[in-house]
Write a structure and sequence with these properties.
- This protein is an alpha/beta fold and about 240 residues long.
- The protein has helices at about 30-35, 95-110, 130-140, 155-160, 180-185, 205-210, 225-240, and strands at about 15, 45-50, 55-60, 70-75, 85-90, 110-115, 150-155, 165-170, 180, 190-195, 215-220.
- Strands 7-6-5-10-8-11-9 form a seven-stranded parallel β-sheet, sandwiched between helices.
- Helix 2 (about 95-110) packs parallel to helix 3.
- About 35% of the residues are buried.
């Protein structure tokens, strides 16, 4: 199913959670961007998404920098792309790298991002709200109708004990039998992939994940940085389902 707005006329996308036909008003931040930064005026055409699959086409009806009201002319609702892709990655020491991953994964079509704190993690804290802003910007730039879910960081043990409806994989650099992700993921089934920190998962963490139903997978013969591995996993699953 389509995942992005299909308007023939490409225009800037605005995002406001809760935007609807009953409440067609941009939030304060988007109103300011629309009126003060982009200099839109009464009657200018806009495209607004709610992040949940609904896209609204309309025109500026009230050009207020804190409360921009839109007169809706057309509504389009879409189903999310299938299968759902959930990437759980250990935060990198350099935040720019994990933000780069979040941006590119959003463009590719990830559904959910989680951050896991592992034994070898060099970063033990992460501001999910900062990642969320990166995701929103990427969603708007790539004209997506769905905003990926961004979860707070949790410890590895807690995460692998959570239920997940679909195939579960762990990518690691230790020895042992591994399937290539491109053949293991199959098609049509939701996928969760664990990606470890710069120092990789510990052997104990790998064993724990396998005992919880995660299958060991390979992302190829090259040794990849954390953020690269996470993006390769996301793109591989998406590509195998197109």
């Amino acid at each position: 199913m389509p995942y992005l707005c299909t308007s023939i006329i490409v225009m800037e996308l605005f995002y406001t959670p809760g935007f609807s036909e009953q409440h067609p008003v941009l939030d304060e931040q988007e109103s300011n961007h629309c009126i003060q930064v982009m200099r839109h005026r009464l009657g200018d055409a806009l495209m607004v998404v709610d992040g949940l699959g609904t896209c609204y086409w309309g025109v500026v009806a009230e050009a207020h920098h804190k409360r921009c009201r839109v007169s809706i002319e057309r509504v389009e609702r879409m189903e999310p792309m299938q299968p759902r892709i959930h990437i759980a990655v250990a935060p990198t020491k350099n935040m720019d790298r994990i933000e780069w991953f979040a941006e590119k994964a959003t463009e590719i079509g990830v559904h959910e991002l989680s951050f896991i704190l592992c034994r070898h993690s060099e970063r033990k804290n992460l501001r999910a709200d900062r990642i969320d802003k990166v995701v929103v910007a990427a969603m708007k730039q790539s004209q997506k109708m769905f905003k990926p879910v961004v979860n707070d960081a949790v410890d590895f043990t807690s995460f692998v004990n959570r239920p997940f409806a679909g195939k579960k994989f762990i990518a690691h650099c230790h020895g042992g039998s591994k399937q290539p992700l491109r053949t293991a993921c199959g098609t049509g089934e939701n996928v969760l992939v664990l990606i470890g920190p710069e120092g990789d998962f510990s052997e104990h963490e790998v064993d724990m994940a396998i005992n919880k139903g995660f299958e060991p997978i390979s992302l190829g013969n090259s040794r990849l940085r954390t953020e690269t591995a996470a993006l390769v996993a996301c793109h591989t699953v998406r590509l195998m389902n197109e």
